[in-house]
Amino acid sequence: MRDRRYNPRMNAPVSELIELLSLERLEDDLFRGQSRDIGTKYVFGGQVLGQALSAAQATMTQPRAAHSLHAYFLRAGDIEAPIVYHVDRTRDGGSFSVRRVTAVQHGKVIFFCAASFQKEEPGAEHQLSMPEVPMPEDLEPPPAIPPERLAQLPTMVQRWLNRAGPFEFRHVYPRDELNPPKRPPYQQVWFRLAAPVGDSPELHRALLAYASDFHLLGTATFPHGISYYQPNVQMASLDHALWFHRSFRADDWLLYSIDSPSAQGARGLARGLIYDRNGRLVASTAQEGMIRVLPEAATR
């Protein structure tokens, strides 16, 4: 197994992501976050999810862990402008707490979510078994795209594909996103943070919220032989749900097992189960998003 000791130069994207999730506190329940251009046209949805959860966690005054988050994306986020997060302390009960987070840019709400927290307590347990797939060490990292092929793509797509991101991914069934074949709507992807970080459970939950937006909606495009990188395809997250089941580390390998039960009306639905390498189900996700295929004349 390769050495994962911290290297500031090698892991600059990880340090940048940690900083991105560390919001500036303006008032008790008011926070400000910055954005990063990672090659997407607008603010990456996972960034807003992670920052909103970070804001909600920062208002907790009791030892309670987030167990669910339900969010709606209302407007595209501006990469060049900060995002202000207002947290409403909706309820603090005997066992559960609820926080409602509203994200604002340029005076308009772009996102809101509700997050629920629970104090630790015992109870009945069961889970679905992890799919039988190769371990991440037995899979190759995604190959680099040849420079001549990369040069033919739009500048935005080049930035997305050519960047060194904070997460590593290993696909069990790799797909050529630039020339996608038609496939059944499911996939399994191993992922982990590219460098080890501290032990804060709140940080690892915010990191998982960020990463949970990768690959999820794209699974709904598989049966149609299309992808986000094609100029006539428009895709955007509409909502996102995330449930935390068990403790985990985002800097150790996690398996994202995703399927898409339906696509219709220019929308697609995708669901995901996230396991640690020992087969423990640590989180579940669901997302519906817009998927439009435009006439070729419209893209010109």
Automatic annotation (TrEMBL):
Catalytic activity: a fatty acyl-CoA + H2O = a fatty acid + CoA + H(+)
GO biological process: acyl-CoA metabolic process; fatty acid catabolic process
Keywords per UniProt: Hydrolase, Lipid metabolism
Domain Acyl-CoA thioesterase-like N-terminal HotDog: 42-118
GO molecular function: fatty acyl-CoA hydrolase activity
Ranges where the Acyl-CoA thioesterase 2 C-terminal domain occurs: 183-290
Keyword Hydrolase among record annotations: yes
This enzyme's EC code(s): 3.1.2.20
Domain of life: Bacteria
Any one Gene Ontology cellular component term annotated for this protein: cytosol
Binding partners and assembly: Homotetramer.
Homology family: Belongs to the C/M/P thioester hydrolase family.
PANTHER family hit by this protein: ACYL-COA THIOESTERASE (PTHR11066), ACYL-COENZYME A THIOESTERASE 8 (PTHR11066:SF34)
Name the UniProt record assigns to this protein: Acyl-CoA thioesterase 2
UniProt organism field: Thermomonas hydrothermalis
